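Something for you to look into today, if you have time. I want to see for myself how the chain folds. Leave the record below and I will have a look.
***
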Amino acid sequence: MEVFVEVLWKEGSPMSEKTTQLNLGKSLRKHRVGRVTINLRGKIWYIYYCENEGRVRRQVGVSLAEAKRLAAQANAQLAEAESRRQKAEAESLAAAAEAKAREVEAKARVKKAGRKQ
């Protein structure tokens, strides 16, 4: 029986991991991966992040390793979405600047044509 208990609770076993998670201090219950926070609530790990002006909380499960993997994926997706947004914003600003330049040029032509008459 003692051998079974030793194997059951040895480091790296599922029982050892679950017990360790339950006994973690407050600072060890929260982790950060880029813009994503991993938080332990009871026995379940959650990931938190902000997306589209709103907060998102997703339940991950009992494994911290799985939570870190999903947090890294979410962080990569957030970074990709941010770069797409910035690219679209830059294109929009460039188009607006170009339109304004055409407008100013057209006004200058009209004003110049008015002086010639």
